[in-house]
Known about the structure:
The protein has 317 residues and is an alpha/beta fold. The protein has 2 domains: 3-123 and 173-313, Glutaconate Coenzyme A-transferase (3-Layer(aba) Sandwich); 138-171, no CATH class. The chain is built from 13 helices and 12 strands. Strands 1, 2, 3, 4, 8, 9, 10, 11 and 12 form a 9-stranded mixed sheet that branches. A 3-stranded antiparallel sheet has the order 5-7-6.
Amino acid sequence: MTTADFRQARAELEGHERPVREKLVTAEEALRVVEDDQHVAIGGTLYSRTPMALLFELLRQGRSGLTVSRPLSCYEVELFLASGAARRVVTSWVGIGLQWGLAGVLREYVEGGLATFEEWSHLALGLRYKAAAMGVPFLPTLTMLGSDLATVAGTSTVTCPYTNENLLAVPALHPDVALLHVHRADMYGNAQVDGYRHMDVDMARAARRVVVSAEEIVSPERIRAAPADTMLPHFAVDVVVEAPYGAYPHECYGRYEADTEHFDDYVSAVRAGGADGARRYLDEHVHGYPDFAAFIAGVGPERLARQRKQAEELMYR
Length: 317
């Protein structure tokens, strides 16, 4: 990133106003902010609070040429590749988990020259979001030094003015749009999260536009009653979408656990047909429904109740 790019991004963020007004819209309306060839950052980590309702809608709208970034990515990245929506992935990991093995679609696309995989360490990617959120062009760190990652990413080093130590200069990362899922929000966009916040705060403050989906929309009075739970204030959010079970089949801490059987079905389809298997998944679960609410209704109350019970069993008492 050049100095000019950094200053332009900082000026744009400083000049972007988010007044106190009602920001509640549908997912279809919210995702119109995303344009072809833009950079979309995905909140949460792996299958924790993945904004699946927003991602499904974005896939349904048929964008192309996107760059997607995420600290730890799950199979949603493969859906963006297989659909043709994305051509570049910036992350530290793609996959569901050890028991499901490597991300087959990612490997197929990268080895076939159909997509670019830009790999950073988990810490380095977080520092890239943080640098942008702080309004600085880079942050110094020890992470990645001595590894192939520093070479592959084409990074630069700096000399510490105090110790003369060699440090990696991790460049700021300014996504065009950040998509996040939270436990609750009010109509003004004040968003609250239970449990880990991951890198969502820095990601939101680094992005030019921020779209938040919430398990429930609550009153401003309820938000004010628990200010410590507020992850993002209204002036860090552009629009908010009500999306019950908006992370499913991923998990939302305390609300519902990840549906591993759903993961099994996806992996089986990919192992049998590669990217075609991922496209069949898209046809069934994304394009096969008019919206995310219909997809959730198709899951059925019994299965959702099972996932809620599993989440409740993991909560402290």
